[in-house]
Amino acid sequence: MNNILRRVDLNLLVTLDVLLAEQNVTRAAERLHFSQPSVSVHLAKLRDIFGDPLLLPGPRGMRTTARADSLREPLREALASLERAVSPAAAFDPATADNTWRIAATDYSESTVLLPALCGMRAAAPHTRIAVLEINPPRLAKQAERGEIDLAFHITSPDTDNFHQQPLFTESYVLVGRKDHPRLKRRPTLTQFCALEHVIVSPDGGGFFGPTDERLAALGMKRRVALSVPHFLFVRSVLATTDLVSIQPWGLAKHWPELRTVAPPVDIPGYEMSMYWHERVHRDPAHRWLRESIAQAISAS
């Protein structure tokens, strides 16, 4: 098969399709906007390739051989499939789409990125589905390349690894504790802050050191981290029921009305949250709609 395909010019197959339909070289030339001699040359090459005359002289033009008849339907289907493959991508219609989107996110980005966009996306594309997968930064590039995920929400990074990225918002930190926490009635001093017992979110699991601790270390100070957890949702429950406190992103803490938030006594650098996607889906109309929907929802929130 490969040897045959290497010998066949696509134009020859288009000519053959028209010849089989018209069974007349002159009419075929008119349809193809070729000269009659050019179509005759194509027919000669086709006869050589298939080892069959394909079209024979008849009383009213030409008649097809048995080999030509066997080619007619598969050739028409193959050319139609090829035409669909090379045609411009169809416009995406969210109202009728049934895509399943796979998004890698933490529970933080579920709440701060996906949740604000969810209602609008459901209204515009009611038949689509969203699967949220636990984010694994070291595997993101491979997952995206294989089509296992469509989007990821993560802190902006200069190392994009074949990813496109779009910044969504910048985040800052606040100190959070229970509503009636006796030491959060006002902003604590740095010494008071370090004396509190803290809970930290460690996405990799088990970490007791983060950006806050880096800033404190630069000042020659240290806090006590009593609890390390992998998810933000559990922190909310811990803070509501204990005297533990936590440095949390403001975008998340502002939705915890049962808790108290105060400015931390130490300057903790914030970060930028971005949306990531792979080059393989960059120009896909459906994927573009997904990204634009999320970005618009975030800018409006």
TrEMBL record:
Species this chain originates from: Caballeronia arvi
UniProt lineage: Bacteria, Pseudomonadati, Pseudomonadota, Betaproteobacteria, Burkholderiales
GO molecular function: DNA binding; DNA-binding transcription factor activity
Domain of life where this protein originates: Bacteria
Record protein name field: LysR family transcriptional regulator
DNA-binding found in the keyword field: yes
A Pfam family assignment: HTH_1
Keywords noted in UniProt: DNA-binding, Transcription, Transcription regulation
Segments forming domain HTH lysR-type: 8-65
Protein family per UniProt: Belongs to the LysR transcriptional regulatory family.
Database matches in InterPro entries: LysR-type_TF, LysR_HTH_N, LysR_subst-bd, WH-like_DNA-bd_sf, WH_DNA-bd_sf
